[in-house]
Every structure is written in structure tokens, then in C-alpha cells.
Amino acid sequence: MGYEATIQFTLDTICPWTYLAKRRLETALSQLPASSPVTFTTLYKPYQLYPEASEAGEDKYAWYQRSRYPSDEQMKKYTVLMSAYGAAEGIDFKFGGLVANTLHAHRLIQHLQSTAGPDVADKVVRSLYKQYFEEERHPSSEETLMRAAMEAGVGEEDARRVVEDKEVGLQETKEGLREAVGNQVDSVPRVVMEGRRRDIELEGAKTVEEYVTALNKIVKESS
After folding, report:
1. What is the CATH architecture of 3-222?
2. Where is each DSBA-like thioredoxin domain found (predicted)?
């Protein structure tokens, strides 16, 4: 008899490691045989790496140099490394644009996940990642959120209502952020695969092989 398993994926839409993890997890899921008795559904959980960031934002490259990689050499090593990691997963990382508050990006994800379903939320997440990391767009401007919603199949009128009314989905998003704090999440990505016998938790961006191994354990223990 089939078993439906949930994968809780805690992310921030401006964290490059969560983008890598999502791509690698997608690849791992695609490698499961069609005859697998377990169906996996990914649900996204919110986390803010920089909740103090402004909505207007600041220059991403300058922010990284100020807060993470102070020397030109360190910054170059970071961009070279992330570019290589990204290329392996089909991601064309760029390093311009703005670092800004992601609350309303999470609000859009959480609201559509609860009202339109996980498939729509997944498409929203894909669009937000691509816009931010590959097109250097603002991570949570109304323009970015509108595009993400519409690329996920949400009608323009419904998308505009959610994006412009900043109270829609706000409470559930804040509850999710508090839950992350209560669960002592202090970094992302955090992937929890819920199995019939036990859950498997993976922190940080793992390799495709590591995700495949974990998925296969859930399948084996669910039969």
C-alpha cells in the first residue's frame, strides 16, 4: 500500500545554499523509481537569515564584502566557488542586485501553499530563486512577487490581491518564523523527511547522493 511522505524544506529565498539544496533534492527525487511505494510532497517552511534587513535593500556585492568576505580575494574565492557549484546544478549565479528583507516573499509562499497547494508554492519558490540569484532582481518587491505568482499559474487579479494586501498570509508566516526559532533552527537549508518509522533531518546543502540515500531509507522503512 502506498505511503505519502512529507519533506519539510526550511529556506530563505536569499540563501544560495538553499537554492543549491532545492536543485539537488529535485534531482534526487527524480532518481526514485516510478514504482516507488512512497510519494513525496515538499512543503516549504520560512526562515529569515537577516530579519533586520530593510525592505528597500542594499547592494548585494557590497553587503557580502562588508559582512562576510571583507577582502577582494575572499570575495573572488566565494564567487568562483558558488559559480562552480551553481553550474553543476544548472544555476547561473550572479552577484549583483540587492540584499533585502524577505518577509513578504515568505508570505506569498506560505499563503499560496495553504490555499493553492504545494505544486503552486514550488513554482513560486523556483521563480523567486531564479529572479534573485540569476537575474539580480529585488527578492521581495511587488514586481518580483507578482511575476512569481503569475509564473506559478495564479491569475493576475488574485496575484495582485495577495501581493498588495500585506496582511494576507502574514500571521501564518510569522507563526512559521516563530516555529523555526522554537525548533532551534539557526541556519538553512534544513530538510526533514518524515517517514513512517522515523524522520530524517539533513542540515546544510547536501549532495544529490546524500539526498538519494535518505529518500531510499524512508522508502525502505515505509514498506
Report:
1. 3-Layer(aba) Sandwich (3.40)
2. 6-215
